[in-house]
Amino acid sequence: MDIKRAIQVKAALTKAFSIVAVCFSMSIIFIGVFCAATNLSIEGMELVKIWLTFFILGGITFFRIMIDDTQWAKSKPFFVKNIIFMPLYLVVTLIMAVSIVGMSEILARPYLVLLYVLIFLITFTVRQLIGYIIEKAKTDLMNDALESFQKEYSWDEEE
């Protein structure tokens, strides 16, 4: 593996697992608040399942970041790639949710799966909107810089 590729892999790993670490921390806080509010206790094995799930999500995120550097991905809007990877994230998180709650609980209350999917889709949509706003701000900044450069350059031609 050449040096450039090794640096690219290291940067992708760092970025992927930093994203997943933030999401993991937020989910642990969310689960903790939910358990405190409902007086529900969670076992240590369930926390290991959550950790393992986020490790798998880190791998998927790493793969997605590596695909971002391909020529195909560079020609597509960022949300297209996110929509392509959304089913993978959804399946992994649903498996985690079902394994934590238990299959008997899901069979007793099938609306829980719908609730989990709804929570996932809301979170995914909010994440997409935040990403879009950040990308739009960067694009607007670049457009403003280009516009000011063009004005400055055209001013020099007039002299």
In short:
The chain contains six helices and no strands. The chain is mainly alpha-helical and 159 residues long.
Written description of the protein model:
The protein has 159 residues and is mainly α. It has helices spanning 3-38, 44-68, 71-74, 78-101, 103-108, 111-158. It has one domain. The protein contains six helices and no strands. Helix 1 (3-38) runs antiparallel to helix 2, helix 2 (44-68) runs antiparallel to helix 4 (78-101) and helix 4 (78-101) packs antiparallel against helix 6.
Tell me the strand percentage band. Answer: under 5%
Largest sheet features: none
Q: Helical content, roughly?
A: over 70%
Number of structural domains: 1
The coarse overall form would be: elongated
Q: Structural class of the helix and strand makeup?
A: mainly alpha
Element order: H for helix, E for strand: HHHHHH
Are there runs of 5+ residues with pLDDT below 50, and where? Answer: none
Taking all Cα atoms into account, the compactness measure Rg is 21 Å
Mean pLDDT: 82
The count of DSSP E runs of length 2 or more, i.e. the number of strands, is 0
End-to-end span in angstroms? 53 Å
Please tally the helical runs, counting DSSP H or I stretches of 4 or more residues. Answer: 6
